[in-house]
Write a structure and sequence with these properties.
- Strands 1-2 form a two-stranded antiparallel sheet.
- Helices cover about 75% and strands about 0% of the residues.
- The protein has 14 helices and 2 strands.
Length: about 325
């Protein structure tokens, strides 16, 4: 009886964690995994523009997708979009996190102000920038006109969102603007976990500020930097509201990345849209796995945990 009871106790103990993780697992299965399965199935079907399932299409959707003339340009722009926005965001956020980690008058107000671009709706931020960049009455053009720059640029150059290259640059600026707050706070949290004793010991050894930053701050900040970079890569890669609200991905597909391109295809070619959705999903998974492998994140997290468990003298 005691053996049977102990076996029952072991079973209950083994199943108890399911009470806590069960809802999360169910949510992931319903919200993430099931849509992925449906998306993959749809990519092999012939779906009419009205949404009717007309049967299997085999690999025709993928064949038609790779035959799209605009696809190569969309993929190149997506790579430029992700790399440029993430790199600039991390660079700016490193500086801001270092600044906000110092004590200065008004630091709390400055921290609160930094939250605003992140707390506001991304769609509303994109709309505000679109209005500000209006060729006739936008505040940016009014300012450039008042200081005399607009006369030198000419009327054609003032239509920022009407020219693909200028529009794409401005959209990247907006993407950085809305990404910096979260990234700064993520890095700031990492900075605040670094013990002050480490810096004091380095000063005693005669290290200057730059050497301490390279040898102490950046290595110890790496776990937070990895998390911030990963989240930014995923968010920026899947970014839709900024591009859609500012240019609708146009003219044509000249300011589209893969996400707006997928939405535009969906209006007429649902199967192709599902196919590029599958490719998008695969690219994100591959990029994340490669990034984690290159940064050896387990070792970094393990080292960070070991440091946190080491008793301070």
């Amino acid at each position: 009886m005691s053996k049977q009871l102990s076996r029952t106790d072991r079973t209950v103990r083994a199943l108890t964690p399911l009470l806590w993780i069960g809802p999360a697992v169910a949510l992931i299965a319903v919200v993430v995994l099931w849509p992925v399965v449906v998306m993959i199935q749809t990519s092999f079907k012939h779906i009419s523009p009205d949404g009717f399932d007309l049967g299997s299409a085999g690999g025709k959707n993928y064949k038609n997708l790779f035959a799209e003339p605009a696809l190569s340009g969309v993929l190149i722009r997506t790579a430029i979009w992700v790399v440029a926005v993430v790199v600039v965001t991390i660079a700016i956020s490193l500086g801001l996190a270092q600044l906000f980690n110092q004590r200065f008058p008004g630091r709390r107000v400055a921290r609160w102000a930094l939250i605003a671009p992140w707390a506001a709706s991304v769609m509303m931020t994109a709309l505000i920038f679109r209005w500000a960049l209006n060729a006739q009455s936008g505040v940016i053009n009014v300012f450039l006109h008042d200081i005399g720059v607009l006369h030198k640029l000419g009327s054609n150059e003032s239509d920022w969102l009407g020219r693909p290259t200028a529009a794409f640059v401005w959209m990247m600026i907006v993407a950085v603007f809305v990404s910096v707050p979260f990234t700064t706070y993520a890095l700031l949290a990492g900075l605040q976990t670094i013990p002050h004793e480490v810096y004091e010991a380095a000063r005693v050894d005669g290290s200057d500020h730059w050497r301490m930053y390279r040898s102490i701050t950046l290595p110890l900040l790496r776990p937070a930097l990895i998390v911030a970079t990963l989240i930014n890569v995923i968010n920026v890669f899947n970014s839709f509201p900024i591009i859609w609200e500012m240019t609708r991905g146009g003219p044509g597909y000249e300011t589209s990345t893969t996400t707006p391109f997928m939405f535009l295809l969906k209006q007429s070619y649902i199967g192709e849209s599902a196919a590029i959705s599958v490719i998008n999903f695969g690219i994100v998974i591959v990029v994340v796995l490669l990034f984690l492998r290159m940064t050896k994140w387990r070792e970094q997290v393990g080292a960070c945990y070991a440091r946190s468990r080491t008793p301070r003298s």
